[in-house]
Amino acid sequence: MKNLFLLLFVLSSVNVFSQQRCASHDHLQTQLQNNPDMVIDRQQLEQYTQNYIATHTENKNSNKKTRAIHTIPVVFHIIHNGESIGTGANISENQVLSQLDALNEDYKIVEC
């Protein structure tokens, strides 16, 4: 009987948690209702974004190269227990550079 009660409690808890949803949309709606300036700011941001997209699309269609390569300084912190380089958690420089290459490839913008 005790196990049955525990099982029913666990199952009902899982069901309750699955019904929750993110409250960020509701919070945003409340902020917009209480702050008219925020509505204007969001509209201006949307207009700026649409203008940027239109300008970017025009440049792309005219075959002009407008994208710049940005260099972002990166620092890697390797946490280890004093192992020599390339063993255990103290990964080698080649592993770090390989991961940096993978990140650069993942974030590279490809023109179609």
What does this entry look like structurally?
The protein is mostly helical and 112 residues long. It is 62% helix and 0% strand. It contains 4 helices and no strands. Helix 2 crosses helix 3. The radius of gyration is 26 Å and the shape is flat. The N and C termini lie far apart (65 Å). The relative contact order is 0.05.
Give a quick set of tags describing it.
4 helices
What oligomerization state is this entry in?
Answer: single chain
User: Could you say which overall geometry the principal axes of the C-alpha atoms support?
Assistant: flat
Helix content: 55-70%
Poorly predicted sequence stretches spanning 5 or more consecutive residues: none
Strand content: under 5%
Distance between the termini: 65 Å
Strand and helix map with partners:
Elements: H1 2-18, H2 24-34, H3 36-61, H4 93-107
Question: Can you describe this structure in just a few lines?
Answer:
The protein has 112 residues and is mostly helical.
